[in-house]
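DM from R.C. (forwarded with permission)

"hey, sorry to bug you on a friday — could you get me a structure for this? deadline for the figure draft is monday and I only need the backbone to look sensible"
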Amino acid sequence: MASFPNSGENQRVTSTPDTTADLAAASRVWNSVQTVISGKPETVQTALTVLLAGGHLLVEDVPGVGKTMLAKSLARSLGCSVRRIQFTPDLLPSDVVGVNVYNRDSRDFEFKPGAIFANIVVGDEINRASPKTQSALLECMEEGQVTVDGTTYLLGQPFMVIATQNPAEMEGTYPLPEAQRDRFMACVSMGYPDRTSEVAMLESHGSSDPLDDVTAVTDATEVREMIEAVRRVHVSPALHAYVVDLVAATRTSPRVRLGASPRAALHLVRAARASAALAGRGYVLPDDVQRLAGPVLAHRLLLSTDAHLARLTPASVIAETIERVPVPASP
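My reply, with the result:
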């Protein structure tokens, strides 16, 4: 397995001996994305964690901070089939999932696949499309299939949606419905780079596109094998109970109007497995759960009016919940 640093810029990934599976390709993907996205190791690590956990990633932030660059650099590094969907108000659901078209030669209808038929789907500015078009992704993201005119078509594996969006209060955006946000395993924010990283970006990216140098370092078969290896990581019954307690605490908190769903608990366990695997362990620790609780749970919460008036954020509520819920003792 690969061992990842918690912080620091452009740190190398090293292999840890005596592990339960080989995730050497994850190291190559990490280093490839780091050549494009500098100064954001935790964001890159979370994106890779979601990939290996078999989930979908939502990248939310203001324009110009590298949301699409992160999605495209990860997609190019994987060597899988990639499609990009530019979400606009006039985009139709059939543009996403596909449509049946009448063929005069065969005198029958034939299915024309939409842009969703790829291993990695980059959805740019997803909240600029209408809610009807956004909802076209619900079945794809949860069940890995598309149903058109009563016929179901399976999507290839691996399948990951990496969607970017601007903050909902910006001009020309539609807030994602709760059901749609709940399909994303994690939500990350790029944030502005620090001064050193921004100067380095101007020097390295000012004269050329950094994506031109990104090449595939793995393929779909290897990605599937890594996902299967992550699923074998052990989670103790005590940690399962701890995850349930964290999620249940969000449902009973007076600061929260809508808490995390059972799907959120499942996603948190899967993400914790991937985090442990990337750290070179065959078992999950409470630290894995706590580190990912914010990215996995915060975007699913709807805060109460009092919490909004107190200027609280979902991330701060999750942090309070982590402090309040007892951590299981070591066996």
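R.C.: lifesaver. The first strand starts at residue 2 and ends at 3.
me: no worries. The two ends are 24 Å apart (CA to CA).
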